[in-house]
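pinging the channel bc i need a second pair of eyes. not urgent but kinda urgent?? the chain im working w is below, pasted from the shared doc
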Amino acid sequence: MARYKRRLTTILVMVIAILLVMPLPFYAEQVGTAENLTNYIKVDHRKPKLDGQFMLTSVSIAQLNGLALLTSLADPTTDVMTAREATGGSGNMSEDQALNRVYMQSSINEAKANAYRAAHVPYERLFKGIYVMGIQDNSHFKKSLSIGDTVTAIDKQHFDSAQAFQKYIRRQPIGTDLTISYLHDKAKKEASGKTVPLAGTKKTSGIGIALTDDVTVKAPTRPITADLGEIGGPSGGLMFALEMYDALSKTNLAQGRKIAGTGTIDQDGQIGEIGGIDKKVLAAKQAGVKIFLAPYIKPSKTVLQYEPDGKTNYQLAKETARKYAPDMKIVPIKTFQEAITYLERSAH
């Protein structure tokens, strides 16, 4: 009997140990890092020599085992989520990573455009094609295309905007044969298939993909390159643009300060909201940052009903700083020019 109990105890201990280390279908969104953008961006083929630092803040997403799940549930600065929640609905981590690389490249190009324009540097905006951001289940190109591919031509015709691509496709009746040319991992490929109804419609013809512009922004006289390694997503746009602008212009925008922040940026300089801003404020605190630039939208009833936890980015950033970093100033930012103006005036 005693031997049986010892065996049972041993088996239970082994089962518990396995459960504690076995990967689970849960992920933790945790505090990431605050990185000096000088280490990732080159202007005129060299690292910018700025009087201060513009810092890119991030969150960390990690798959959990049993032990890590227990630890994460006890940490008020960590959010536990399912794979579907962690990937924004797809549940596929590899697709999510590919999508975030697309977002990152788009944010870098829009940051370049805004920095060049603000610094009065002539630049070119070249349309290369349309990025594949998602693929419908009924698409005839589902087995050929992957998220992150660039469609460059339809029936051998190249267009100068995503709208022109869409206009050509929508003129074709549903069920029309099309041949698309596309780039996959920089290799040129072709695929043929039929048009299908776009999601949510019965009569609008498409090839069954979600898309965005694939553009290159460059200025031959003042080249900018950016290599963020494994960091992905669209949320670095504002900080990229500030780093680039400070390096391009004669303005000393940083003026010896560590400046962190987050926010998407579009070609008109509008700053958009992002996810995980509370984790990013904490990452900035760990790096000794005193100024944090946060996207701002007016917290109307309509806006708040769509916000996670009912708070805008700015509201959540303020709340987090008040609790964990009371000496950090959270600055509301709506446009790139607004960020420049604030940093110029606040340095005096």
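so The longest helix spans residues 93-118. and The CA atoms of residues 4 and 310 lie 55 Å apart. — does that match what u expected or am i reading it wrong
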